[in-house]
């Protein structure tokens, strides 16, 4: 336009006149670092993965972005990513660059089964979380400041199998929570997650939880398989206790089953599950075969699992077992023999609803010497209390003969270790006449 003096663009940005032939830096290139960081922070607020793009512009921007912790304070993880292992690389970069500041974790998950795989790489720095936000089919936010969680205090993992497609499921119910393991106790916490399937160990880094609970979703709800349970346990090598709360169901067992090494496991609790044998059995071990006695049993698989599990328990018990109660569980005859031969300190033996045969009760008789061995042998030499309840396979005559022979010999030779209390109840083949005969030897030691 006439009458208006044009000012060169480089004069507006630099405040100085340069000859047009001189090199001119782009305007944003001369901004101070503090102003650039402010601009970058607005970009990051709208798109948290922006630091990855900004640091590729130039070596100066890369150094600036990498040395600005506030730009790395939001980690967004998405289960739609085809490469789930990318999350571990992303987590390592964000947690390192955001130091020493705290950061937010945002999970965009349509499938709750991805919550644990996405979160697990971040658990080692949970003390730095400001908030955990869940979005997708369900929105949820957990403010972490009041929990004071640390990697060492997050000791328990509770996984609840739930069918999210049920009509009566409340979409407002949480998918994930943190809670003290007991009311008023704020030194150990549990991570509680509702899922529909146990995640594959391929998606998981090693987990540091020392206590694990897996609960199936009810009698008509979701069930799992021992294969998936055992595969998940391979990621939990530091476990000290494992609780499985299941429901009886007749699904065929999927194989092959992996072997799991849990060197620090102290407590194992399997409740209401038909998968005991599959979970407990270890293949190619001494004694892990069919029962040579061919005794009748209603549940041969669980019998074998109980026997193999008790064999392992006996080998690890120090001090030895003094009380053994078997309530609605059973073993093979070979396992009873193995156990009775290796419990020299057992004083009380209670067994309810066992399918054990006469061969088992006969194991309690004294073994008298033959010509080459003049030492009388006695299994469970310290046994003082015996209770047999609802053992329907036992013959009354066999019970009388076995316990009479034992009591007469121990009364005469080891009165300090003889039977002081015997209860036989609910055993259909133990008649009133059998009770009378046994009472003539045991007298008031035979209780109703």
Automatic annotation (TrEMBL):
PROSITE patterns with a match to the protein in the record: FBOX
Entries under Gene3D superfamilies matching the protein: 1.20.1280.50, Ribonuclease Inhibitor
Record-linked Pfam families: F-box-like
Family matches, as SUPFAM superfamilies: F-box domain (SSF81383), RNI-like (SSF52047)
Name the record gives this protein: F-box domain-containing protein
Domain F-box intervals: 25-75
Source organism of this protein record: Agrocybe chaxingu
């Amino acid at each position: 336009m006439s009458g208006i003096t044009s000012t060169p663009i480089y004069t507006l940005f630099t405040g100085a006149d340069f000859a047009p032939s001189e090199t001119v830096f782009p305007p944003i290139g001369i901004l101070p670092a503090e102003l650039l960081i402010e601009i970058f922070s607005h970009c990051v607020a709208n798109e948290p993965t922006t630091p990855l793009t900004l640091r590729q512009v130039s070596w100066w921007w890369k150094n600036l972005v990498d040395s600005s912790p506030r730009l790395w304070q939001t980690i967004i993880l998405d289960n739609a990513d085809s490469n789930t292992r990318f999350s571990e690389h992303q987590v390592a970069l964000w947690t390192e660059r955001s130091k020493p500041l705290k950061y937010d974790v945002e999970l965009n998950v349509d499938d709750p089964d991805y919550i644990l795989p996405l979160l697990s790489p971040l658990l080692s720095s949970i003390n730095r979380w400001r908030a955990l936000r869940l979005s997708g089919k369900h929105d949820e936010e957990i403010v972490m400041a009041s929990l004071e969680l640390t990697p060492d205090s997050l000791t328990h993992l509770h996984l609840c199998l739930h069918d999210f497609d049920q009509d009566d499921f409340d979409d407002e119910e949480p998918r994930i929570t943190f809670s003290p393991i007991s009311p008023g106790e704020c030194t150990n916490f549990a991570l509680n997650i509702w899922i529909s399937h146990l995640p594959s160990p391929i998606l998981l880094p090693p987990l540091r939880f020392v206590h694990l609970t897996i609960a199936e979703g009810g009698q008509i709800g979701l069930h799992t398989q021992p294969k998936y349970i055992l595969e998940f346990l391979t990621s939990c090598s530091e476990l000290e206790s494992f609780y499985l709360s299941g429901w009886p169901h007749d699904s065929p067992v999927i194989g092959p089953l992996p072997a799991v090494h849990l060197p620090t496991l102290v407590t194992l609790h399997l409740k209401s599950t038909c998968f005991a044998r599959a979970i407990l059995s270890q293949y190619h071990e001494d004694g892990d075969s069919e029962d040579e006695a061919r005794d009748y049993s209603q549940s041969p698989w669980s019998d074998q699992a109980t026997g193999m599990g008790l064999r392992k328990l006996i080998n690890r018990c120090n001090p030895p077992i003094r009380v053994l109660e078997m309530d609605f569980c059973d073993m093979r005859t070979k396992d009873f023999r193995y156990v009775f031969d290796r419990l020299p300190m057992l004083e009380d033996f209670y067994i309810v609803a066992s399918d054990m045969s006469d061969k088992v009760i006969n194991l309690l008789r004294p073994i008298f010497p033959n010509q080459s061995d003049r030492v009388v042998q006695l299994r469970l030499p310290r046994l003082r209390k015996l209770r047999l309840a609802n053992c329907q396979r036992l013959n009354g005559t066999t019970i009388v003969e076995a316990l009479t022979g034992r009591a007469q010999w121990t009364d005469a030779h080891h009165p300090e270790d003889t039977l002081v209390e015997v209860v036989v109840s609910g055993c259909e083949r133990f008649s009133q006449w059998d009770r009378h005969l046994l009472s003539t030897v045991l007298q008031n030691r035979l209780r109703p």
